[in-house]
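Data availability (excerpt). All sequences and predicted token strings are deposited with the supplementary files. A representative entry, Peptidase M20 domain-containing protein 2, is shown inline so that the format can be inspected without opening the archive.
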Amino acid sequence: MKLTAHHRTARDAAESWRPALLGLSHQLHADPELSFEEHRSAAALAGLAERAGFAVERGVAGLPTAFTAVRGSGELVVGLCAEYDALPGMGHACGHNVNGAAALGAALALGEVADDLGITVKLLGTPAEEDGGGKVHMIEDGLFDDVAVAMMVHANDADTVGNGSLAIGSWNIAYTGRPAHAAAAPWEGRNALDALTVAQTGLGLLRQQLPPESVVHGIITDGGQAANVIPARTAARYEVRSPTLESLRTLQERVRACFEAGALATGTELRMEPHGHDFADLRQDTTVAELYADAAEALGRTVGRAPQRTGSTDMGNVSHLLPTIHPMIGYDTGGARQHTPEFAAAGTSEGADRAVLDGAVAMAWTGVSLAAVPGHRARLLAEADRRAAARERAQEDAVSPRP
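Structure token line:
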């Protein structure tokens, strides 16, 4: 790619923040916080943005650990999504310390050229990607309404663009039965653990009929209190994944039937409650993804372009609303995959540090190209206007339904 003065200014700005960005990444890694509890992490990101002259609003969307940080006043709003929650028992085994620091770095870099390019840079601090879906809360609160394009990078063991993700829904499951002495009078009980066993057996048999790429997985969180008492209560957490939201809805009904069968067979009561928001499948904008890939390659990175589905993310919900990219940025993890202690251990390596800076610059350069090339800018603004008009029509219909 050909670097312009704006590209160089953005790169130099990111480099000037290198110590702070790497310090932030290491700080998040050393002090992992779980979903919706990322108070210190959110404060650290928001504080750095404020130091750089961004207007920061904390506690947005009713979430204490969500924030927005804005610089510039141009009509083209470029959104950068920062993640910073960790996994229970594993810390940053998904690399969100890298994700969050890179997003902040991109915002700081773009902020230096925002006025010249006629853009508004909007950093969105999005909590609870691992469990709950902070981005969905922020979508519902209208915080993405003005965003024309959304970007983030995700830590991985290799650089790729264009990946998809699976739609996912999660349930909290609970069976209530009746306790009894397990030896003296078991017939007087209603075994809630048996109910869960029946459900799991049904799920095991269902797996033969699962469509490609659809998966069901979960854990038992309460299996009873004593071996000599018929369990009166059991609980579990289960997740269902499928290639699209539409196929997810179909699969959820079949999975629900397995849990209902457990209650029917054992005479227990079933309660199924959604756990957080459903995540949509990820649909990346191919034009923006290619601009990012060109930028990353200009930084000396090797970027794969063989799309595949990898896990699930609430960035999928964003991608159903507006042009979005979610490229993977890689570093040496010793062959370890995400959600393992070994992956977490690589999160402050030299390669991870380089990923923070390269991810920041590559996203900033992508933003520069989108703003400076008339065709890209016009497309994003036209789509933003179309979405705004659709929201206005929906609001009018809600007040005065059409005949």
